[in-house]
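Narrative summary of target 7.
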Amino acid sequence: MYRESVAGDSRDVVKNEDEAPYHAGIDIEAIKEQGRIEMWNRVAGRWLWEGHLEITRTMVRNAIEHRGHSKEFGQFVWERCLKDSAPRKRPRVLYLVDAFLFEGERVPFDQDFGIKEEQIMHALIEHVRVKKRTGMYKNEADSR
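Modeled conformation, tokenized:
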């Protein structure tokens, strides 16, 4: 039962039991996902990786064409890949289970694809698109 002093919509979802003294509804999947992210960060922080994917210009071009983006955006994605792998000649991303490391962030695979290479490439492109759209790369362009 709820006391009358409880405010909010009954559809509100909380992330842990401390926020739900009346157990209005706990998002178990969100809690599990947070645990997976924390564990991924711990393992990745120890530099233990399942493997890596070397990224080629052709891979970027094919994924860009599949998504219907412009060639200019494809070039921008390629430059981001080069910058992320700066000390190496060939760009690559390190992956672990269902996510990879790109620009210092954990990026989940795009599960709409069956092959790991495609899951990584399409997730990478979407990651760059969202960051570009939200202006996350704007400061870097200003400093050039």
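Residues 13-47 form one domain.
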